[in-house]
Amino acid sequence: MSLGRIAQQCLKNQAKHTNLNAFVPSTPNPDAVLRRCQEADERRKQCKSLSSIDGHLIAIKDNICTSDQPTTCASAMLQGFISPFSATVVEKLKAAGVVIAGKTNLDEFGMGSHSINSVHGPVISSTEDRRSVGGSSGGSALAVATEQCFAALGTDTGGSVRLPAAWTGTVGFKPSYGMVSRWGVVAYANSLDTVGVIARNVEEAKQVYDIIKGHDPRDPSSLSALTHSRIEARLASRPEKQSFRIGVPKEYLLAELHPSIHTHWSTALGCLRRKGHSIHLISLPTTKAALSAYYVLAPAEASSNLAKYDGVRYGNKASIDRDQSNVLFSHTRGQNLGAEVRRRILLGSYTLSSTAIDNYFIRAQKVRRMVQDDFNRVFALPHPLLPHPATSPPSSSSIESPPTETQNEGVDIILTPTSLNLPPLLSSFQEDITDNNPTKQFQEDIYTVPASLAGLPAISVPVPVAGNNDWQHVGLQLVGQYGDDTRVLKAAGALEGVLEDLRR
For the whole prediction, is pTM greater than 0.85? Predict the structure, then answer.
């Protein structure tokens, strides 16, 4: 099928699913979109395509700057704001011939796990069954799931690409921290934010990732070309293997895990074992403290990043006259920032205060380092940015491993659930707010946060759930060593093949 016809179908789906709120109101001109796709068709006929995704429609999360469309971060504070420049990832996509399908809805400034904290309204799975699509990149995931675009970019701070992918039946890939430029991405938590890819399958996610990865001199957190070369040399020195040593963290076997997710996790492990991969029980003891540490560190960074939105330096001013008894920007921030953003700013400001920083922020940083050390202990591949360890990684106790197999090799990849539960009804969140328990939503990040704290590559692969409606999806997450993004994608492809066999 021609790229022009594919684009026409995507645009029809956008019009058909407007009520799902995947895209923010401002969208590109359909005629311009079709014209660019037709130009890509001509290049393809002449064997002059700019890339493997030349002419495909890709949606951009609305906290990634675009110079030709507003970037609002789903906040009244930035309503109508048009960036004078595009983010590096957007520039790379356009240079590869990609056509921007529009900006997608999200939780305000990326703060949330269900895409309900938006000035544009919540993203919903369907009008009949109003369930969460995950967050904060829920609009991007839903746009891909409903075929409103070929793929989409999101940002992942603590699971914001992987959780929506799990709940919409799509693939969500978070690269290693620093592999993809953050220049032009509106910051939530600088040390955690990572631009990720949401696609229909692993191969398409890889195609987009191959375009956007690489060093960017404008981004201080971007890995240099020299560091990229050093990582590639370290990876190239290891022997090539067709099978994987797959780790299963015992701390992830939680009593709260939904039975259906546990069943599909076990089934996938069994299928992988029959395909020749070995399964090993491992321990990541600091996992239990990872979620608490994340919700200290991320709000602390957010409180600093969002301090500039005061209506004076950045952001829209309040529409009401300020009370002379209040400081200049109190009404502006109170009116233009949502409840969840205000909550996290207050939490972050407190943990950075002189009376609390030692007990909260400093301790959370220590927990973060312990999480990183846990992963380094169980992976066979040493961390490429750290000195070679003097000894091999400690043993991982094997489950049903052959007697001849050595026990001190470490694992190549870790397989876990992506989420604790199936997609909940949106009405349940109103009950949490009524019961003064808004932090109950944080628990859905428990499986995704550790990889974010350690900066590791992770991908969520969808699993079919028999007997449920189309929106009852399960995601399984694969996590690899830092810089080992290629192996994570390869393992995800293997898992995807196994799951395809289950569908037949």
Answer: yes
